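A.,

Following up on our hallway conversation. Structure tokens first:
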């Protein structure tokens, strides 16, 4: 890609990520992690230090297999399952996703299974200008990752169910394109699915 086109794509995605971002107040919400406890609330400026990075660094060592991390677009709903924590980053979608993937790569104890909205593949420039560029950038970032798709409503329902028993951290970005969220189901980083199947098959039958 030549420099002019790269500049245009970066500039357009920045526009899609936020309009008037420096003047917007962003809020950080943490859903209740246990039934009966109150929800926490704090504020941060879009130009302040990246509190979401500190939260990522703090949460990741606590997370393990069956936990989830999501990097979600600006209109993703605030879900109410007790285990779902939503963090508003005030930051570009691709920047947050790159940071999350890098942290997972460095973590060693967990590895992600990527889940995308099935609708993303079928979005057109007519109704979602900029989506072609975004799809290409996502494909580049997710290259080499184990990836699957599900319809958006099924993913929301899945997280609702999982969030009743396990912790889920959603990093909400400023991206203004639908069906662009990236969900990362965590698995054990030092134990493969093949090894797990062999172990299960070797256990005595009741």
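Then the amino acids I'd put at each of the 206 positions:
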């Amino acid at each position: 890609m030549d420099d002019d086109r790269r500049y245009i794509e970066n500039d357009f995605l920045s526009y899609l990520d936020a309009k008037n971002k420096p003047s917007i107040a962003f809020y950080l919400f943490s859903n209740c992690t246990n039934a009966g406890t109150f929800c926490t609330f704090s504020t941060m400026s879009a130009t302040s230090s990246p509190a979401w990075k500190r939260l990522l660094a703090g949460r990741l060592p606590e997370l393990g297999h069956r936990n989830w991390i999501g990097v979600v677009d600006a209109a993703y709903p605030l879900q109410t399952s007790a285990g779902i924590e939503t963090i508003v980053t005030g930051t570009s979608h691709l920047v947050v996703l790159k940071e999350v993937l890098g942290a997972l790569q460095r973590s060693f104890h967990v590895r992600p299974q990527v889940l995308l909205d099935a609708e993303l593949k079928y979005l057109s420039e007519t109704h979602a200008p900029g989506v072609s560029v975004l799809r290409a950038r996502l494909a580049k970032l997710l290259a080499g990752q184990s990836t699957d798709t599900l319809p958006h409503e099924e993913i929301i329902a899945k997280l609702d169910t999982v969030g009743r028993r396990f912790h889920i951290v959603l990093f909400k970005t400023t991206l203004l394109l639908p069906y662009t969220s990236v969900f990362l189901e965590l698995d054990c980083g030092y134990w493969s699915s093949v090894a797990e199947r062999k172990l299960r098959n070797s256990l005595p039958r009741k």
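Residues 3-202 form a domain with the RbsD-like fold fold (CATH 3.40.1650.10). Curious whether your intuition agrees with the design.

B.
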